[in-house]
Specification:
heterodimer; A: 98 residues; alpha+beta; 5 strands; 19% strand; globular; B: 387 residues; Methylamine Dehydrogenase, Chain H; four-stranded antiparallel sheet
């Protein structure tokens, strides 16, 4: 079970108040987590990554274990601490604006 | 007793303002979707309790919301949580705006060709007759249609075939902001795009033609009378006379008496003919309203005086409407979708400002009062007149 922290606006859109959990097959990747997230919460489709290209939206960042995973290949394995549920994958809205 | 419901989109959420037909006491609901840019909300003429909303964000992209209870509750039309994480076909597609076929390119600010890229929905126009049909005008400019109440969308690609490679973005982006549905002929739709011009279909959206003859854009495009490339800010129509169109262009206030086949200038007498919105009185098809703005680089009223101008003669004779509006030190703007009218016996006129005020006149513009003063910058105003 992988824990995912969503930004405030996406929690509202998904109708959740806290972090969510998704199950993915091994090896767990950001792409697989987003697939599972969008399957459970269809309202999130198109908000984290583009509908057509599946590219990360420009102002979205992925953090985990104090690392920036935003530019890692979408199919790169997630850190072990995320896979075992000890640490969440954090989906963050970029700091843009004042 | 009749009532009115004013749907206000702002930079940081949506607000719903309701009143009885006196339009003196107002109830304010909101912010809905706090923190999001709400470009436009509009109710269905077939079912007024069905309201569509365009919710958008530079971070999270486009979301479509729909209410079926007059704005009390909202949901993405096809985005409900899936209890067992199943994947029903088509779920989560209510914000999927994909251009049809080869995407192609349009002219960019610097004159080079640039690929079409979907950015946001500027305007939602529910069908006059079909409860589940709604049109969306988007940036980069295109027209989409949904026949399942916003759950899925398909582009009407024939529009971009009307010299789309020559269209270019205006300062606000290359947006399709005006969608006029003919009141009795469902095959005829008129749209307007900044900065491409006005276009019309007479076959339900399959084929389109530019309708820009008579427009002149001397300092904006190389050929001032070109077929396309004009920065149209807004077009208005009275349903009783659908062949008469009124246009607020980047500069110039224009009129057509033949559904856009030819336009002529009706701006004589205005302090400036730059501006964004234009509206028609609900019961007087020759009475029109504009809000003159100083210039394309100074987006505020001339002399710091917020004045609505009214013509009761279909143009060229204008009177300033100032009662109740600030007449000094006012430097707000009124955006293209931020003016609307109700259809009560004494026609109400409404507009919102980038300073967060929404003004109402319950007497056709003779006098004005603010309904609210301190909202976020207002992007759009629509009014529903309820029985």
């Amino acid at each position: 079970m992988i824990r995912v922290v969503l930004p405030h606006h996406l929690r509202n859109l998904a109708g959740v108040s806290d972090e969510v959990q998704v199950t993915v097959a091994s090896p767990a990747t950001i792409s697989a987590v987003l697939d599972a997230l969008e399957t459970s919460y269809p309202a999130l489709r198109g908000t984290v990554r583009d509908h057509g290209t599946l590219k990360r939206r420009a102002f979205i960042r992925f953090f985990a274990c104090q690392e920036d995973l935003s530019h890692a290949p979408p199919n790169a394995p997630l850190p072990d601490l995320v896979v075992c549920g000890a640490e969440p994958l954090m989906i963050i809205g970029a700091m843009a604006g004042g | 007793m009749s009532s009115v419901r004013v749907l206000v989109g702002t930079k940081k959420g949506a607000f719903i303002l309701t009143s009885d037909e006196q339009r003196e006491q107002w109830e304010v609901s909101g912010p809905h979707f706090a923190g999001w840019e709400m470009y436009h909300l509009k109710g269905s003429p077939v079912d007024p309790n069905r309201i569509y909303a365009s919710q958008t964000s530079s971070w999270f992209g486009q979301v479509i919301q729909r209410s079926d209870d007059g704005g009390k509750t909202w949901a993405t039309p096809d985005g409900a949580k899936v209890p067992e994480a199943l994947d029903p076909p088509g779920s989560g597609n209510s914000n999927r705006f994909l251009y049809e076929g080869e995407v192609g390119t349009h002219q960019f600010y610097d004159g080079t060709q640039h690929p079409w890229e979907f950015k946001r929905v500027w305007h939602l126009e529910p069908s006059l007759t079909e409860r589940d049909t709604v049109f969306a005008g988007v940036e980069d400019a295109a027209l989409f249609k949904s026949t399942d109440a916003g759950a899925t969308w398909r582009e009407l690609p024939g529009l971009r075939a009307a010299k789309g490679a020559l269209w270019q973005p205006g300062a606000g982006g290359m947006c399709l902001h005006t969608i006029l549905l003919h009141p009795s002929n469902p095959e005829r739709i008129t749209v307007a795009i900044s900065a491409a011009g006005a276009f019309r279909t007479d076959d339900g959206g399959t084929t389109w033609k530019p309708i820009n003859r008579g427009l002149k854009s001397a300092y904006e495009i190389p050929d001032p009378t070109a077929d396309v490339g004009h920065c149209v800010h807004r077009i208005a129509m009275h349903p009783s006379r659908p062949d008469v169109l009124f246009m607020q262009k980047h500069w110039d206030v224009m009129r057509s008496d033949n559904a856009g086949d030819m336009w002529y200038d009706i701006g004589d007498g205005l302090p400036t003919d730059f501006g964004f919105p234009i509206e028609v009185h609900a019961h007087e098809p020759e009475t029109i309203y504009v809000v003159p703005i100083k210039s394309d680089s100074e987006h505020f009223p001339p002399d710091g005086k917020l004045r609505v101008y009214r013509s009761r003669t279909g143009g060229n004779e204008w009177e300033a409407l100032t009662s109740g509006l600030p007449q000094e030190n006012c430097f707000v703007n009124v955006l293209r979708d931020a003016m609307a009218v109700d259809s009560l016996d004494s026609c109400g006129i409404y507009f919102g400002t980038t300073g967060g005020q929404v003004y109402c006149s319950a007497d056709s513009g003779d006098s004005w009062k603010p309904i609210v003063r301190d909202l976020p910058a207002v992007l759009s105003v629509e009014v529903q007149t309820l029985p």
